[in-house]
C-alpha cells in the first residue's frame, strides 16, 4: 500500500498557485496538483548554487536507454566486458540515453542540478578470479580524455548536457586526480608471472624508512642524487628532474599488454606515481599509499599537477558543464589543490561559466577537519559529512537534536574564498556509506515501515530547510532502503535482476527493486516536489542565515529561524524527532505566523509539536 502524506491545511502556501499570506489562507483540496515553480529559477548559467537542489546519480544503475552499449563494445564474457545485470558488482546497462529520457522525471521533482558518478573510460574489470568486480561506478579510470563506452558516446553526453541545460538544469561531473585504475605492479609483492589469485597486499613503505635517495630502503645504494624531496618548496620541474630511479621503495613495473593503456600518454610513466604500497588510511600513507590497490598518483610532481589541470580544462571547454565534485580530496596533498582549484575556476570563468561549482569529497565527520580543506587546501567547498553525521545520529542512533545544532553552530569555521557554509552540499547518505532509509531501519529494526517512512520524510525535510545545498541520492525519492553500504546501496531504478536488490522492501510503496521505480506519485517523490517549491518561494530557505532557538538533548524539538539578509524574508522551523508530542515555550511563537509546510502544531502559550513532525512558518508576511 502507499502511505499518504499529511496534506497542507491552512497557511499562506498553495501548491499550484502561491499568493501573499492571507490570500490563500485555506485548506488545499486533496486533488490540487504540485508544481515546483520552475519560473522562479534564475538561468542555470548565472544561478547561485544555494538556489539549487542536486540529484546524485550513478548512470549505470538509473535507466538503460540503449542496450546496444551494455558491453561497451568489448568482446568475451563478463570477466572481460564487465556486463552482468544479475551481479551487484558488474555493469547493469544504464547509460546517458537512459538518463536523458528521465530528465523530465527529475525536473518535475524539482531537481535543478545533476551530479553523476565518473563517466570517463575505465578498466572494465579488476581483481583476481575470486573477487573480480566491474567498473560500473566509474572510479577505475584508464582514459581521462573519453567517456566510458558502457555509457554511450560523446554525442550522447553532449545531448544529455544540452537537454539538461534546456530544462535549466546544471550538470556536474565527478572527477578523480588521486589515482587511476590498478595497472602498476611491484616486483616485491607481485613478481612477473606469479599467480594473480595469490597476490598479497603490498605493505606501505614510508618516506622515512624508504627515502627517495636510497635504493630499496636502508642500506641500499645511493640513488637520485640531488633530489631534495617533495615538500611544497621543492615542487619544481628542476628538482623532480633528478628523481630518475623509481626503486626507492618498491620496484614498479607495468605488466605486458598494459604498457599504453592509460590516456594521456604521460599517465603510463611510473615516475608519476608514489609506488609505496597500499594505504593504511592514516598518517603519511593517507596521501602516498595506493587506494585499495589503485595506482596512486604523485600529485606533488609539477607535471602531474599541470597534467590534471589540462585534462579537466578540456571537459569544461568541450561540454560547458557547470561543476566538479572531486573524489578522495583528503588523499591528495594540499599544495595540489592550492594550484588546481584556482586554475579550474579561472578557466571556467573564461569559458563564460561564472558560477562553476567545485566541491570535494572529504570523508571526515567534523567541521574542524572538513574546514581545513576550504581554508588551507583552498578547495572551494566540501561535501558536508558533518551534516550527514549529525542527521545519522538523530535518525539512526536516537540522539537529541542538540547534536545537530552544535554541529551547524561551527559553520564559522569554514572560510572559503567565496561564500560560506550555506554553499556546502548537504546529504543524508550516498553510494559508499548507504542510504538514509537503511540507517533508519538498521537503528530501529523493530519499528514499522510506516514509522520509518515518517522518519525518512522528517530527515529529508530537515535537509531541505537547513542551510546548504540539498543532495538527493538517486532512489531515495522512491523509498529505497538497501542492505548496507557500497554495492548494497547501488540498486537499479529500472527492473533489477539482482536477487539481493529484488527482494528489498521499499518505503512508501508495495513495489520492490524488481520493479521499474519512476513513480511520480510516490509519497517521497511528492515530498521532494513540495520541499523544492517551498525553497523556491522563500529566499530565507535558499540562502538565509540560520539561528538556532532551541534543541533538546534527547529526542525532541529542534527550533531554528532562517532570515534572508537582502529581502528580510524570515521563516521559523520546528522539528520533533521524538515518537511523542513535545512542547517548548519561546517568544518567537507569540507573534503572527503563517503556516507553510508540514504538520501544524498547537499554540497555547507553549508550542506543542506532534510526534515525528516538522512545521515551517513564515514570519515577515504575517506581521502586518
Automatic annotation (TrEMBL):
| Species assigned in the record | Kordiimonas lipolytica
List the signal peptide residues: 1-19
Matches recorded under InterPro entries: GH, GH13_cat_dom, Glyco_hydro_b
Any one GO molecular-function label of the UniProt entry: hydrolase activity
Q: Which CDD domains does the UniProt record give? A: AmyAc_bac_CMD_like_2 (cd11339)
Domain spans labelled Glycosyl hydrolase family 13 catalytic: 56-530
Tell me the protein's name.
Alpha-amylase family glycosyl hydrolase
Name the UniProt key words of this record, in alphabetical order.
Answer: Hydrolase, Signal
**PANTHER family xrefs:** ALPHA-AMYLASE FAMILY MEMBER, PERIPLASMIC ALPHA-AMYLASE
Pfam families in the record, alphabetically? Alpha-amylase (PF00128)
Q: Which PROSITE patterns match?
A: PROKAR_LIPOPROTEIN
- Would the keyword Hydrolase turn up in this protein's UniProt record? yes
Amino acid at each position: 500500500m502507499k502511505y499518504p502524506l499529511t496534506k497542507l491545511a491552512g497557511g499562506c502556501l498553495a501548491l499550484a498557485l502561491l499568493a501573499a499570506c492571507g490570500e490563500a489562507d485555506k485548506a488545499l483540496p486533496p486533488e490540487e496538483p504540485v508544481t515546483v515553480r520552475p519560473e522562479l529559477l534564475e538561468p542555470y548559467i548565472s544561478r547561485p548554487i544555494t538556489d539549487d537542489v542536486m540529484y546524485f546519480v550513478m548512470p549505470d544503475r538509473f535507466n538503460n536507454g540503449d542496450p546496444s552499449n551494455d558491453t561497451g563494445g568489448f568482446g568475451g564474457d563478463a570477466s572481460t566486458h564487465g556486463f552482468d545485470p544479475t551481479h551487484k558488482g558488474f555493469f547493469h546497462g544504464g547509460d546517458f540515453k537512459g538518463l536523458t529520457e528521465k530528465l523530465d522525471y527529475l525536473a518535475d521533482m524539482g531537481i535543478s542540478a545533476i551530479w553523476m558518478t565518473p563517466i570517463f573510460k575505465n578498466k572494465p574489470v579488476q581483481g583476481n578470479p575470486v573477487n573480480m568486480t566491474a567498473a560500473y561506478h566509474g572510479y577505475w579510470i584508464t582514459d581521462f580524455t573519453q567517456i566510458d563506452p558502457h555509457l554511450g558516446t560523446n554525442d550522447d553526453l553532449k545531448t544529455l548536457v544540452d537537454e539538461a541545460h534546456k530544462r535549466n538544469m546544471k550538470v556536474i561531473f565527478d572527477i578523480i586526480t588521486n589515482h587511476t585504475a590498478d595497472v602498476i605492479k611491484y616486483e616485491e609483492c607481485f613478481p612477473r608471472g606469479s599467480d594473480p589469485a595469490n597476490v598479497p597486499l603490498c605493505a606501505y613503505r614510508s618516506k622515512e624508512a624508504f627515502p627517495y635517495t636510497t635504493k630499496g630502503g636502508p642500506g641500499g645504494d645511493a640513488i637520485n642524487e640531488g633530489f631534495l624531496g617533495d615538500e611544497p618548496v621543492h615542487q619544481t620541474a628542476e628538482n623532480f628532474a633528478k628523481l630518475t630511479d623509481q626503486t626507492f621503495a618498491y620496484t614498479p613495473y607495468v605488466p605486458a599488454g598494459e604498457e599504453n593503456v592509460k590516456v594521456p600518454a604521460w599517465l603510463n610513466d611510473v615516475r608519476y606515481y608514489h609506488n609505496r604500497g597500499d594505504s593504511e588510511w592514516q598518517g603519511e600513507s593517507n596521501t602516498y599509499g595506493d587506494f585499495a590497490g589503485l595506482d596512486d598518483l604523485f600529485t606533488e610532481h609539477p607535471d602531474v599537477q599541470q597534467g590534471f589541470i589540462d585534462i579537466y580544462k578540456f571537459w569544461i571547454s568541450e561540454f560547458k558543464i557547470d561543476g566538479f565534485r572531486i573524489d578522495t580530496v583528503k588523499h591528495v596533498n594540499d599544495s595540489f589543490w592550492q594550484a588546481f582549484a584556482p586554475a579550474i575556476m579561472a578557466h571556467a570563468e573564461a569559458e563564460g561559466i561564472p558560477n562553476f561549482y567545485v566541491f570535494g569529497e572529504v570523508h571526515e565527520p567534523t567541521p574542524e577537519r572538513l574546514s581545513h580543506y576550504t581554508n588551507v587546501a583552498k578547495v572551494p567547498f566540501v561535501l558536508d559529512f558533518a551534516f550527514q553525521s549529525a542527521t545519522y545520529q538523530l535518525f539512526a542512533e536516537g540522539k537529541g537534536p542538540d547534536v545537530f545544532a552544535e554541529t551547524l553552530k561551527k559553520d564559522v569555521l569554514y572560510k572559503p574564498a567565496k561564500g560560506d557554509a550555506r554553499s556546502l552540499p548537504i546529504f543524508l547518505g550516498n553510494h559508499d556509506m548507504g542510504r538514509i532509509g537503511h540507517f533508519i531501519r538498521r537503528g530501529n529494526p523493530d519499528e514499522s515501515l510506516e514509522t520509518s517512512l515518517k522518519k525518512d520524510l522528517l530527515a529529508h525535510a530537515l535537509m531541505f530547510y537547513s542551510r546548504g545545498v540539498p543532495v538527493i541520492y538517486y532512489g531515495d525519492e522512491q523509498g529505497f532502503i538497501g542492505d548496507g553500504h557500497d554495492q548494497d546501496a547501488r540498486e537499479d531504478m529500472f527492473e533489477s535482476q539482482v536477487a539481493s536488490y529484488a527482494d528489498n522492501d521499499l518505503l512508501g510503496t508495495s513495489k520492490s527493486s524488481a520493479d521499474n521505480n519512476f513513480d511520480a506519485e510516490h509519497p517521497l517523490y511528492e515530498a521532494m516536489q513540495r520541499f523544492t517549491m517551498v525553497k523556491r518561494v522563500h529566499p530565507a530557505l535558499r540562502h538565509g542565515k540560520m539561528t538556532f532557538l532551541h534543541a533538546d538533548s534527547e529526542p525532541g524539538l529542534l527550533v531554528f529561524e532562517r532570515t534572508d539578509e537582502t529581502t528580510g524574508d524570515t521563516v521559523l522551523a520546528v522539528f520533533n524527532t521524538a515518537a511523542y508530542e513535545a512542547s517548548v515555550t519561546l517568544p518567537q511563537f507569540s507573534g503572527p505566523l503563517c503556516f507553510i509546510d508540514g504538520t501544524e502544531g498547537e499554540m497555547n502559550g507553549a508550542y506543542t509539536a506532534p510526534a515525528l513532525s516538522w512545521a515551517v512558518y513564515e514570519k515577515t508576511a504575517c506581521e502586518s
